[in-house]
Amino acid sequence: MKLFVLTAAAVAFASNAIAGTVAYVAPAAPVIVEEPATMGGSGMWLIPLVAIALIALAMSQTEH
């Protein structure tokens, strides 16, 4: 009988510890910072253009 009472007490205390708080705390909304759009002045479009030009040049040359 002692074991039953100790087990019941342990279960009651454990369920309260696992349940957490009664009050609901809403999670904070993430802050989204938008970067201003660039007008294409970075020059990063040159890299694919050069790659396409090199591939086209290699394909256009014929070996005799």
Description:
The protein is mainly α. Helix content is 52%, strand content 0%. It contains two helices and no strands.
Secondary-structure topology with pairs:
Blueprint: H1 2-19, H2 46-60
> Mean of the pLDDT scores?
75
Shape: elongated
- The number of E-state strands comes to 0
**Helix and strand string, N-terminal first?**
HH
**Spans of 5+ residues with little confidence (pLDDT < 50)?**
none
Tell me about the biggest sheet? none
Helix and strand content put the structural class at mainly alpha
Q: Could you give the distance between the termini?
A: 100 Å
Number of helices: 2
Radius of gyration: 34 Å
Strand content: under 5%
Q: Helix amount, in percent?
A: 40-55%
Quaternary organisation: single chain
Descriptors:
single chain, 64 residues, mainly alpha, 2 helices, elongated
Briefly summarize what is shown.
The protein contains 2 helices and no strands.
